[in-house]
Design a protein that fits this description.
alpha/beta; four-stranded mixed sheet; 344 residues; extended; 14% strand
């Protein structure tokens, strides 16, 4: 009869978290009800000197985060169209890369000599069908001529201020706060140049720039009118204040009426955006807020119309624009007319 060896008792499996002398594995979960398990703990980092430093749970607040660099793409060549805008560009010898013109207008006496001079300067002249111009201008009223010009050259604000002060002892500069409609901006430029203002300031973002539509509506005024495009409009107003300009803003809810304001000295007139008006930050930067009294049922005016009324009021108060009665009488007396009323 053989002796049977006793079966070995099963040994408990060793856990990596258990010490060599422990009979039971350590419990990794909390005994508190409802508490989530902590999971496996990671070793703490050790420095070269042997001191342990805890792992930060969040990124340090003093970390330097570099601001993204804004990449400004070069503007595409500008397309101008219409008889007057292209004619004005030719008369001012603006650099034109290409001109598309119908055969009917090609030999017009107003264009013939100017086109010949432009061609000698390197401009390509193409006689095209009106349908080609319809395609190039996307169906706009081109009047038989269009031209590809170099992108509009904005001037620096400091240069605009210097030019304005050199041109007049009481200069006027227009500021457009977020005008997005090119027709409104073009109409403002046309009115401002016609009345004799010294320039315009527009923001770089959330506003329309000098486009083909703006140039068309301006009807050639851009060839004799300086426009500055700034990144920060509020800072531009501070620069104008430092240069001696008084800042007037058009606001529908302003308490001062436009005719009641005495405009004198260097003036910067701020025109608000369509529908929204002046932003709150721009209103705080203005020295005075003025309004246009409306007696009809229409609650507001178009931005370009409001700008035209305000610009006219500014120049109406200027001595150089006033009608002097002595000059009026002397002019008629030279013609043999009497200024006395006929009392018979």
């Amino acid at each position: 009869m053989t002796d049977k060896k006793p079966k070995p008792k099963p040994q408990p499996s060793r856990s990596p978290n258990r010490g060599s002398g422990s009979a039971q594995p350590k419990r990794r979960y909390s005994d508190k009800p409802g508490q989530r398990p902590r999971g496996r703990q990671l070793p703490k980092p050790v420095t070269a000197g042997g001191d342990r430093k805890p792992i930060p749970k969040h990124k340090p607040t003093e970390a330097i985060v570099e601001a993204p660099v804004e990449v400004v793409e070069p503007e595409a060549p500008e397309l101008i169209y219409g008889k007057h805008p292209v004619l004005t560009a030719l008369e001012n010898q603006r650099t034109l890369n290409r001109i598309w013109i119908t055969s009917r207008l090609r030999y017009d006496e107003r264009f013939h000599s100017l086109l010949t001079e432009a061609k000698s300067n390197g401009t390509v002249i193409d006689e095209v069908d009106p349908r080609r111009l319809d395609y190039l201008t996307e169906g706009a009223n081109h009047q038989g001529i269009a031209a590809q010009a170099a992108p509009y050259e904005y001037v620096e604000l400091a240069d605009l201020i210097a030019r304005a002060k050199a041109a007049s002892t009481q200069p006027v500069i227009i500021i457009a706060d977020g005008i997005t409609d090119p027709h409104n901006l073009g109409a403002i430029i046309r009115t401002a140049e016609a009345m004799g203002t010294q320039g315009l300031v527009i923001p770089q973002r959330r506003a329309v720039g000098i486009t083909a539509t703006v140039a068309k509506v301006a009807a050639g005024a851009l060839e004799n009118f300086a426009v500055s495009r700034v990144v920060n409009l509020t800072r531009a107003l501070e620069d104008l204040k430092a240069a001696g300009f008084w800042i007037y803003g058009l606001a529908a809810d302003a308490t001062q009426s436009l005719p009641a304001v005495q405009f004198s000295g260097a003036i910067a007139l701020v025109i608000g955006a369509e529908g929204e008006g002046l932003s709150l930050l721009i209103q705080k930067s203005c020295d005075h807020l003025v309004s246009i009294d409306l007696t009809g049922k229409t609650p507001s005016l178009n931005a370009s119309v409001a700008a035209g009324m305000a610009i006219y009021e500014i120049y109406r108060q200027r001595p150089s624009k006033a009608l002097h009665l002595d000059r009026f009488n002397s002019t008629w007396l030279k013609k043999g007319e009497s200024t006395e009323y006929n009392k018979s």
